[in-house]
Inverse folding.
């Protein structure tokens, strides 16, 4: 066997790269991981973790308003400090970044803070020209926000910059209608901004059940969010007063204080030098891999968002674990991509697992759909008309639950346990045989008709 500097060289210390590095090292491999920015990757540094903390912070706007109905003497105008929330969130990001770094170092993983280019099947070159060799290379560099190609696009920002704003703008236009767009829409709306969601199609949250996303649209409109559908960018012009005028197809121009692009994410393969090793990319620039995460170059593997299979942090982590266990742990493992639970931390949040109603009809033909459309107890006493909706899709012949979809308070927390039942292939009868835990919102799962 050739004499390499390392058994494994990982490019990218995000969720997937960190897991693969740590587990491979625990199995006895000599591992180095290169990270040009900060250990933790998108999720920890500029993604799901800080965004969820902003969701928590924004939620206090309605909680404080509701508190009066529960006897709390809350002032009509509560003062909010964006810098306090922003800085505390960044402090937590720093803490997690340090924890990730410590974990890698404690497992003997060498962390190299440098940009890396692949210069051969078993070779990488650091930014300073240093060459390193490894028996295997793992690409775990993730993805970055897409920016539309339109005049004036340089005046907009992406989710990366949204965490570091000096102040909350009064008027925000968010381009896109996926989970990032809807989550930031809820955050900025609750923090006092007027929010316009602009989308080039008529759909929000494609891939989620139609009834659930329709309910989110209804609630969002009721809260005062504005939607502009079939609206493609024509241009963004910066005015003398610093405001931005956005021109779009099929709608009148609108003037706002900030434009956020949330129009998808693009794999970070642009300047990795993958051609030098014969690594094939798909039409979207993602690394093509097989079921064992191996690319078209036998010594190079890839996991996470850079493969554009399922862009979710827990999937990247599972792929990293599977790679390390298979290659270094003598434990062949493949990720099962069926029945993956997912959530949108919108306002209110939604969550789902398994087939949507339309997917089930196309796949199974005969289905049974059960639902519960109710007003949570807290909303009743708070005089809020906002309703929750739970939906269960079952195989019409066997009663096996093939999909669960929910919108309402805390549904991501509820769905995690319910997703186990869907994964296990349980039936509607087995749910019905379970005694309800009363009074909870989760009890609706065993009471649906």
């Amino acid at each position: 066997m050739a004499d390499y500097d390392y058994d494994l060289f990982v490019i990218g210390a995000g969720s997937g790269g960190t897991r693969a590095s740590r587990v491979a090292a625990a199995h006895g491999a000599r591992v180095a991981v290169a990270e040009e920015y900060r250990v933790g990757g998108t999720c920890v540094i500029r993604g799901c973790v800080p965004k969820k903390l902003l969701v928590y912070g924004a939620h206090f706007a309605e909680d404080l308003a509701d508190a009066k109905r529960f006897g709390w003497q809350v002032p009509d105008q509560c003062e909010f400090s964006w810098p306090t929330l922003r800085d505390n969130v960044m402090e937590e990001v720093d803490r997690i970044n340090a924890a990730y770094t410590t974990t890698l170092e404690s497992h003997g993983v060498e962390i190299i803070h440098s940009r890396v280019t692949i210069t051969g099947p078993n070779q990488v070159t650091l930014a300073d020209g240093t060459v390193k060799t490894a028996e295997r290379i793992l690409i775990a560099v993730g993805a970055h926000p897409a920016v539309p190609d339109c005049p004036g696009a340089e005046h907009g920002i992406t989710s990366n910059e949204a965490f570091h704003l000096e102040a909350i703008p009064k008027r925000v236009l968010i381009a896109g209608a996926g989970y990032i767009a809807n989550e930031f829409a809820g955050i900025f709306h609750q923090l006092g901004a007027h929010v316009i969601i602009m989308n080039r199609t008529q759909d929000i949250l494609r891939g989620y059940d139609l009834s659930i996303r329709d309910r989110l649209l209804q609630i969002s409109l009721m809260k005062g969010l504005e939607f502009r559908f079939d609206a493609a960018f024509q241009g963004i012009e910066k005015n003398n007063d610093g405001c931005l005028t956005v021109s779009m197809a099929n709608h009148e121009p609108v003037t706002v204080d900030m434009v956020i692009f949330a129009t998808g994410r693009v794999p970070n393969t642009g300047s990795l030098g993958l051609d030098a090793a014969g690594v094939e990319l798909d039409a979207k620039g993602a690394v093509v891999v097989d079921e064992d995460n191996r690319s078209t170059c036998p010594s190079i593997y890839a996991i996470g968002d850079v493969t554009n299979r399922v862009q979710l942090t827990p999937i990247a982590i599972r792929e990293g674990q599977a790679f390390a266990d298979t290659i270094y742990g003598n434990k062949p493992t493949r990720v099962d991509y069926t029945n993956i639970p997912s959530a949108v931390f919108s306002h209110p949040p939604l969550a789902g697992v398994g087939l949507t109603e339309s997917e089930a009809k196309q796949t199974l033909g005969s289905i049974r759909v059960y639902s519960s459309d109710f007003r949570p107890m807290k909303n009743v006493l708070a005089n809020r008309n906002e309703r929750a909706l739970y939906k269960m899709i079952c195989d019409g012949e066997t009663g096996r639950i093939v999909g669960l979809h929910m919108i309402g308070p805390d549904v991501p927390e509820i769905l995690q346990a319910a997703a186990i039942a869907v994964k296990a292939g349980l039936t509607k009868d087995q749910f019905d045989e379970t005694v309800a835990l009363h009074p909870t919102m989760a009890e609706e799962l065993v009471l649906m008709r």
Summary: The mean pLDDT is 96. The CA atoms of residues 154 and 236 lie 9 Å apart. The chain has twelve helices and 22 strands.
